[in-house]
Design goal:
It is found in: Membrane. Keywords: Membrane, Transmembrane, Transmembrane helix, Transport. It is a single chain. The chain is mainly α. It folds into 2 domains: 2-400, Up-down Bundle (Sodium/glucose cotransporter); 407-480, no CATH class. The chain has helices at residues 2-7, 15-37, 41-46, 53-64, 67-71, 73-80, 83-89, 91-102, 104-110, 115-122, 125-158, 162-210, 214-220, 234-249, 252-259, 264-295, 304-307, 314-352, 358-379, 386-400, 402-411, 417-433, 446-464, and strands at 415-416, 473-475, 478-479. A 3-stranded antiparallel beta sheet has the order 1-2-3. Helix 11 packs antiparallel against helix 20 (386-400). The longest helix is centred in the middle third of the chain and has 49 residues, at 162-210. The protein is globular, with a radius of gyration of 22 Å.
């Protein structure tokens, strides 16, 4: 990967490393401050439910905009397929955020720590168990490509080996998540979100200038890159667009942050700030990646955004690179913490030891961060591209968890336990087997089949089991 980048004309600049290390040092200071303020499991998992609107906005944005945004997602789509396809791709999370805002009060009303707890209240313990396994699977995958994405960043811009950069990311992310939990993650997120916006806004005009201006860019890229979907068919585009929409609609990280808000009003304002931040980044990142296509036509698509940090003034490139690092570090922290919460809160306290003390849960969560972080590091070695792992994790999560969670919100007393469980099993089975076992029939992406199939199964089985005692109906999160 590094050799490919260097051969394509991207010259590493070790000076950029110092700026990134300065950012990482600041994050560790905040993490130590949060460690001193974290005394209970609720402090660790939900920041004591004390987050204000500004912190809510920052932590939601920084959590969502991770390595997938920097080295996959709209970045890769803009470079490979075209600017308009990438901008349209960015509408998926925006639609999800808008929908999520309308359900924010219901989410806060559950007062739970995790998505499996919502599934347990709304469907039953069996759904909780399935949700626990799927979330752990998906989130470990998401954390692993944060590590790899950071390694690619340092390799492309500073000349450090990918393996070294990946190891640095793993250590920093694990340490930050272990120290203060959501208390540290939320505040480092807020700092990082500010850095992201500043880095992208300040860096954009320098990147366009380095590329020779918009006119030069549009004349040097393939003609198809300027069409609505580039060289993607509508089905291919939907295969990229749907997974992030489904993930954001039922992402446990987002739910935990909404619950951690100090008030309903502040949380609502925070969601609006999140929407604006994602909208800004969802336009600027594709433009930068599209400019990179003009300057570096032969690099890996995932390297588009970070490659331009080497051709603009060092101080600007350093800010943009630190912003990219912020995307990755904060998202890695969040998903690692969230998955660890599932282990301690849902598996240990929910199934193994319901009488576990608060202190035991707190320290088990910290231990799970280290174990899952190590496993994520190992897992990242088995997927050739970040975008592949990103979409695989998104699809498994979105097809299994999202239909079930929204059935709880929308179906009320029409949802049965058997219906909810059937939908989750159908969604997961199709998501993991569609390509690996069935070979992607008709060229359709797994998510296009799996999510609707899960929703249909939930509705159909619930209708068939309405009057069957084993298909207990549920309403407003409680069984009848």
């Amino acid at each position: 990967m590094v050799l490919q980048i260097l051969q394509a004309g991207v010259e590493p600049d070790i000076t950029l490393l110092y700026i990134v290390l300065g950012y990482l040092g600041l994050m560790l200071v905040v993490g130590f401050w949060a460690y001193q303020k974290t005394e209970t499991a609720e402090d660790f998992m939900l920041a004591g439910r004390s987050l204000g609107a500004l912190i809510i906005a920052g932590t939601l944005m920084a959590t969502w905009m991770g390595s997938g945004s920097v080295t996959g997602g709209g970045n890769s789509v803009a470079y490979s397929n075209g600017i308009w396809a990438a901008v349209l791709f960015g509408t998926a999370p925006l639609l999800g955020i808008a929908i999520l805002k309308s359900f924010a009060s219901q989410i806060r009303g559950f007062g739970t720590y995790t998505i499996p707890e919502i599934l347990e209240e709304g469907i039953g313990k069996e759904a909780k168990g399935i949700g626990l396994l799927v979330i752990a699977f998906a989130y470990v995958g998401i954390v692993s490509y944060q590590f790899t994405g950071f390694g690619f960043i340092l390799a492309a811009t500073t000349g450090l080996p990918v393996e070294t950069g990946t190891l640095i990311a793993a250590v920093v992310i694990i340490v930050l998540a272990t120290m203060g939990g959501l208390m540290s993650v939320a505040y480092t997120d807020a700092i990082s979100a500010f850095l992201m916006v500043v880095g992208l806004v300040v860096g954009l005009p320098f990147v366009l200038s380095a590329a020779g201006g918009w006119g030069e860019i549009t004349t040097t890229v393939p003609a198809s890159s300027l069409t609505v979907l580039g060289d993607l068919s509508p089905i291919q585009f939907m295969g990229l667009w749907v997974p992030p929409l489904l993930l954001v609609l039922a992402d446990q990280n987002m739910y935990q942050r909404l619950i951690a808000g100090e008030s309903d009003e502040g949380t609502g304002i925070g969601i609006i700030g999140w929407f604006i931040g994602v909208a800004v980044a969802g336009v600027i990142i594709p433009i930068i990646a599209f400019a990179a296509r003009s300057m570096f036509p032969n690099i890996d698509p995932g390297m588009a955004l970070i490659s331009v940090t080497t051709v603009i003034p060092t101080w600007v490139g350093g800010i943009l690179l630190a912003a990219a690092a912020a995307f990755i570090i904060t998202t890695g922290n969040s998903f690692l913490l969230s998955a660890s919460t599932n282990i301690s809160q849902d598996l240990y306290k929910g199934f193994i030891n319901p009488e576990a003390s608060d202190r035991a849960v707190l320290w088990l969560t910290r231990g799970a961060v280290v174990v899952l972080g190590t496993f994520s590091y190992i897992m990242g070695q088995y997927f050739p591209t970040i975008l592949e792992l990103q979409l695989y994790a998104y699809t498994a999560y979105g097809a299994t968890i999202t239909p079930a969670v929204f059935a709880i919100f929308l179906m009320r007393n029409r949802l049965t336990k058997m219906g909810g469980i059937a939908g989750m099993l159908v969604g997961f089975a199709i998501a993991v087997s569609w390509e690996a076992i069935l070979g992607q029939p008709l060229g359709l992406d797994a998510v296009i089949i799996a999510a609707p199939a899960a929703a249909i199964a939930i509705i159909a089985v619930s209708m068939l089991t309405q009057n069957y005692s084993g298909g207990t109906t549920v309403s407003a999160g409680h069984e009848h």
